[in-house]
Inverse folding.
């Protein structure tokens, strides 16, 4: 007879999660660190009771907004290189739906997060229950079905015994480096409290072994032959290099064969900016160094990257007629992009195998001074951007220069996500330490920065964490600043107040469209448009209102003084830096395909549409 333990479904779920471990390269560690939640109708008497009873070692954090708390979990898992996670729980209906955006953020960035939204009664006796959405064509649908398209695994636990297969499948996906992302287990509120005799084998310690996938001999031979046939290869360094811990292998590979590399947002920081083969950001928000070399490359080697349209400049970047693509990736969908040679392998093992074969065959690229020249030119440009000033106010690139060069130590971590700041930091931020660059740009989710900074600080309690955020994104979501104060987790918010959505405002005007609806201006009676004066918002007072420290900055000297106060502070702080609108960095040897109106009363718009059509002809047709 199988030994069992009688407990509620919610209690069994927590005991199961508490006993999940992950093993990578022989090192074993606990996988699920805690649960972040907001209690309400649907989870307070089920999962809430199980959390309160304490028959587990999982940490509980109280969120303030369901999307925000899920962003904490994303920031935590990303900073832990996907080897530790947190679960998030919500009430049914609106509480659950608030997390859907965060689930999309996790999946787009391949970050493991376990979502536990409460659900309507499985027995359908209280029907329709408070906060339930009803659909006349399908009575099985609830608000939680909205998680399906943004989850890598989705399940509804409609009976307590179903938990066993649901939980094991959840762990299968969460610990899979090729297929991870948001995992959603919908928990009907009655089932959470129902008891069942769970086998002890289900509840005991379970170790998930992450197996590194090696290259097969056949694909290794094909990859070596392709590289050897090319003279000027270029590497696109993606997040997979970080998650595989393949930085040393990439350095050895790049140095041995003199192959330069450009960084994606997820890959930036895997190797310090000082490395001679590092050309900085690649693509639309990249450097002139990386993009000039990439345009002439005859082979693009993608390593752990999904080659999105920012990275490839809408498939326009690689202008060499003979260019070919080779993609090293564990995810088949990513590896097959750009019609390249797919190498389904772990980045670290693949680089080792390619190094040994190419070394044996005496391969070396044919670059002659181009890499050094491109780096030197870009270094001068970054220095120029760092030193820009104006009598009208603080220039945005100057802010980043002061922070990067003078005010942060090499192990400080920056967090960014949306607006013009991610573009700026991918271009000009000089990463000196390891794992110091935390930018979510797979989804470019506004409102991520403050919440994620809390997660990053949880993951790295001994390092300073700086959330770089624009006023537009800050206004979207900043409530987890209060969570940082509640938990005694110090974060530093660097708020660039440029009066609205200036990144999109810049895109709007660049395509010939008059300024419309993107700045924080008052509505004028004469025009009935938002064309009046800027709204005078005191964001420093918001931080002080929560109980933290807030400082307003209008000059560079005030920035120095405020930053010194921030570094001395023991509690969370916010710097409200009044910044000149439109002073973000611009593109370098890049192009992005956008759907500009082909018919417009503005001739500038039609001219922009014609320019788009002309550039489309240069893009690869994959």
């Amino acid at each position: 007879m199988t030994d069992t333990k009688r407990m509620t479904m919610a209690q069994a779920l927590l005991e199961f999660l508490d006993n999940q471990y992950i093993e990578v390269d022989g090192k074993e560690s606990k996988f699920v660190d805690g649960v972040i939640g907001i209690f309400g109708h649907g989870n307070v008497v089920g999962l809430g009771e199980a959390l309160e009873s304490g028959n587990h070692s999982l940490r509980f954090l109280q969120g303030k907004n369901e999307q925000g708390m899920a962003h904490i979990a994303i920031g935590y898992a990303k900073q832990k290189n996907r080897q530790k996670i947190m679960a998030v729980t919500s009430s049914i209906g609106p509480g659950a739906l608030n997390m859907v955006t965060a689930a999309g953020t996790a999946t787009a960035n391949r970050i493991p997060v376990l979502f536990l939204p409460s659900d309507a009664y499985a027995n359908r006796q209280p029907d329709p229950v408070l906060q339930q959405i009803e659909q006349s064509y399908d009575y099985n649908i609830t608000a939680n079905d909205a998680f399906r398209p943004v989850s890598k695994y989705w399940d509804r636990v409609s009976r307590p015994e179903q938990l066993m297969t649901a939980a094991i499948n959840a762990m299968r996906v969460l610990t899979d480096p090729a297929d991870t992302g948001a995992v959603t287990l919908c928990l009907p509120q009655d089932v959470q409290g129902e008891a069942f005799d769970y086998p002890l084998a289900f509840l005991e310690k379970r170790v998930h072994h992450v197996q590194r996938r090696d290259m097969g001999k056949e694909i290794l031979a094909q990859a070596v032959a392709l590289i050897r046939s090319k003279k000027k290869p270029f590497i696109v360094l993606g997040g997979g290099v970080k998650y595989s811990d393949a930085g040393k292998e990439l350095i050895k590979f790049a140095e041995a064969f003199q192959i330069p590399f450009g960084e994606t947002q997820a890959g930036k920081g895997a190797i310090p900016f000082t490395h001679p083969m590092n050309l900085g950001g690649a693509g639309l928000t990249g450097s002139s160094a990386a993009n000039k070399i990439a345009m002439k490359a005859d082979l693009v080697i993608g390593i752990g990257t999904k080659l999105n349209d920012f990275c490839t400049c809408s498939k326009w970047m690689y202008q060499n007629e003979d260019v070919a693509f080779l993609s090293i990736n564990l995810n088949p969908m990513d590896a097959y992009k750009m019609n390249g040679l797919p190498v389904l392998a772990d980045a670290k093992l693949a680089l080792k195998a390619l190094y040994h074969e190419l070394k044996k065959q005496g391969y070396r690229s044919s670059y002659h001074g181009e890499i050094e020249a491109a780096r030197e030119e870009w270094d001068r440009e970054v220095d120029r951007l760092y030193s820009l000033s104006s009598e009208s106010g603080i220039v945005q690139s100057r802010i980043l220069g002061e922070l990067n060069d003078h005010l942060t130590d090499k192990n400080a971590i920056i967090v960014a996500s949306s607006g013009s700041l991610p573009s700026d930091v991918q271009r000009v931020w000089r990463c000196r330490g390891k794992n110091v660059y935390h930018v979510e740009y797979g989804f470019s989710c506004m409102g991520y920065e403050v919440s994620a900074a809390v997660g990053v600080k949880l993951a790295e309690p001994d390092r300073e964490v700086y959330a770089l955020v624009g006023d537009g994104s800050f206004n979207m979501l900043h409530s987890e600043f209060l969570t940082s104060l509640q938990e005694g987790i110090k974060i530093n918010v660097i708020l660039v107040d440029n009066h609205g959505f200036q990144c999109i405002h810049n895109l709007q005007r660049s395509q010939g469209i008059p300024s419309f609806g993107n700045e924080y201006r008052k509505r004028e009676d004469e025009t009935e448009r938002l064309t009046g004066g800027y709204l005078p918002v005191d964001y420093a007072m918001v931080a002080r209102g929560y109980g933290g420290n807030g400082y307003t900055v209008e000059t560079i000297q005030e920035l120095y003084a405020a930053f010194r106060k921030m570094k001395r502070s023991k509690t969370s702080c916010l710097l409200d830096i009044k910044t000149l609108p439109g002073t973000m960095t611009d593109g370098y040897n890049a192009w992005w395909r956008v759907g500009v109106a082909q018919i417009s009363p503005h001739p500038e718009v039609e001219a922009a549409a014609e320019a788009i059509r002309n550039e489309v002809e240069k893009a690869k047709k994959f």
